[in-house]
Every structure is written in C-alpha cells, then in structure tokens.
C-alpha cells in the first residue's frame, strides 16, 4: 500500500504492532529502549514516544515505571465476514447480526449526493437523495461505517427505531414494498483519509475494506446504493469453499504413462496444455 504522507510515528507504531502480532516481541517481553528504537528507525526519540503512547492506548504496550515498556496482546477479537454464495449468511455477518454489534444512527436526511449516486438512483441534477449513516461498535469500539443512499421520498417510510436493530435492506423492502432482485458488489482496499479517520476513530492512512453494494429492483433498476467502510484492524474475511464439484483427473495406467514418456508428440502436447 502506498503510504506517502502518513506520519512517521504511525509507521513506527504499525511496525511494532506487527512485531507483537508475529511474536517477534512476545507478550510479556520488554521492547527495546526508546533510544535504540530511534536509532533503528532513523527517527527522533519524540517520534518513538508518540508511537509508544499510541500503542499503550490501543493495548499493545504497557509502561512500567523505572523498568521499561512491555509488549502485550489485546483480547479484542476481529469481526469475521463470511465470504459465501449464501446472501443471508453474508448479510448476517456484514450487517452486525452475527456477532452482535451495537448500531448507532448518525443521521437520516435528504442529501445532495455525488452525481454518480444520483445517476444510479435516477435523481435529477439538483434533486436530493435520502442518506442514512450508521456506525457499528464491537466491544465499545467503532469498527465500521455504513452509508445507504436511496430516493428521498422513502425517508418518511423508514422506522428509525428499527434501524438500530435490523438490516437496512430488510427494513427498506418491508417499508417501501419494493422487492430487491439482485445486487452488484465491489470490494476495494483503501486508506482512511482525514474525514473517515475521524468518523472511525482511527489514524490517517489506516487500512480499510471498502464495499459498494448496488441493489436492483424486480424491474432491474438500482434503488439502493450502500457504501461500507470496515476497519482493517478489526475485521477479517473468512471462507469455506467445498471442492466437491471439481472433477479428479482420469487415472492413467502404467502403460499410458510409459507411452506418454516415449511419444514426443504427446510430450509436446502435455508441455503446452
């Protein structure tokens, strides 16, 4: 990932954190002294102290007066998102139903969305669209940020109380009577710029998963666009893929193998399969 412009103390903190995760610095071990780390990274001791303070706040280091700084490993587990052909299973994990996440509504308002969003939703040039923004927390920490775009006339139909308990897609279909037929999904790795970093409570330049879902009605018209930002240090993707459908190569007899080894034409064909 290209990280030009990322403060040096964040790079140092990320490197020390990686060493703790990989057990180069084992939990309970003392990390090198500030002056030694400054020499290793080629930075000032002030930069090292800022990195160490950051990691103490995150639970990766513990300072002991007069002794030094000890590596620790936080107990916070990452939230798993299931990669599956089953939409229900994916929705449960991505929307915070499993495991259970706390959902906070930031706002639900008419909004002058980017032209690309208005075009998808069939809104006019100066016509606002509806925007719902929500945060998800796991063990009290913000882990993801969701933005839903839809036609503005649907705002009044959405029961606000339910939006903190169930998935937006379920509530949207119930409230508008619009049946969703399919979705198109795009996944990217991005970094947190200053606005996203502030919303997610993370640092500028931190890695994020970005997912865009475009939901289509039975008439093949886009009716909902969802943008989801997941903190890279709080989420992981997991998949279990059955291999039952992959055919095994046909078994070949010793005679066939011998013929293949002595026939130059067959050898040539195998080399360029």
Question: How would you describe the overall organization of this protein?
Answer:
The protein is of the alpha+beta class. It folds into two domains: 8-71, Winged helix-like DNA-binding domain superfamily/Winged helix DNA-binding domain (Arc Repressor Mutant, subunit A, Orthogonal Bundle); 79-239, Chorismate lyase-like (Chorismate lyase, 3-Layer(aba) Sandwich), CATH 3.40.1410. The protein contains nine helices and ten strands. The strands form three sheets. It has a six-stranded antiparallel beta sheet with strand order 4-5-6-9-8-7, with helices on one face. The protein has a two-stranded antiparallel ribbon with strand order 1-2. The protein is extended. Mean pLDDT is 83; it is low at 264-273.
The number of helical segments is: 9
Give the amount of beta strand, in percent.
Answer: 25-35%
- Order of strands across the biggest sheet? 4-5-6-9-8-7
What order do the helices and strands follow? HHHEEEHEHEEHEHEEEHH
Biggest sheet statistics: 6 strands, antiparallel
Helix content: 25-40%
What is the rounded Rg?
A: 26 Å
Number of strands: 10
What is the assigned CATH homologous superfamily of the largest domain?
Answer: Chorismate lyase-like
**Shape label:** extended
CATH fold topology of the largest domain: Chorismate lyase
N- to C-terminal distance: 35 Å
Please state the average pLDDT score: 83
Which CATH first-tier class of the largest domain would you pick? Alpha Beta
The helix-and-strand class reads alpha+beta
